[in-house]
Amino acid sequence: MITFPNAKINLGLNIVEKRSDGYHNLETIFYPVHIEDALEVVDLKESEEEFQIHISGASVEGKAEDNLVVKAYRLLQKEYPIPPIDIYLHKHIPSGAGLGGGSSDAAFMLKLLNDTYQLNITKKQLEAYAATLGADCAFFINNKPVFATGIGNIFEPINLTLENYHIIIIKPDIFVSTREAFSLIKPMCPKTSLKEVIQKPIEEWKDLMKNDFEISVFANHPQINTIKNLLYHHGAVYASMSGSGSSVFGIFKEIPELRQIAELKNLGSLYINKG
Question: Which residues lie closer than 8 Å to 1 by C-beta, 6 or more apart?
Answer without folding.
Answer: 40, 41, 112, 115, 116
